[in-house]
Known about the structure:
Elements (H helix, E strand, L loop, with lengths): L1 H42 L12 E5 L2 E5 L6 E2 L4 H7 L5 H11 L1
Amino acid sequence: MSEIFDERRRGLEEEYMHRKDQEGLEKLRAQLAAETRAKEREAGIMHCPRCDTPLTATTYEGLKVDHCDKCKGWWLDAGELEQLTKHNEGGIIQRFLHSLSAE
């Protein structure tokens, strides 16, 4: 009878240790992700507000525009929309939107 309780206790101990190992791994992964994020922030790498993928910078007619390869979102920094509208006489907005739809 005591063997059954010993086996049960060992099983519970193993389950507890496994759970503690998983919690430790999750903490380490979160810490690593935070460190990576801090390094990327220092390097000036921006992330997509929609899906948190690093953005790729593209120059379009002298205007730097960030886009996400995963969700296909395009993001303008402060002042970039004003630059687009200032150059609208030549139809830059229409050409820009047309280039987005062509991808």
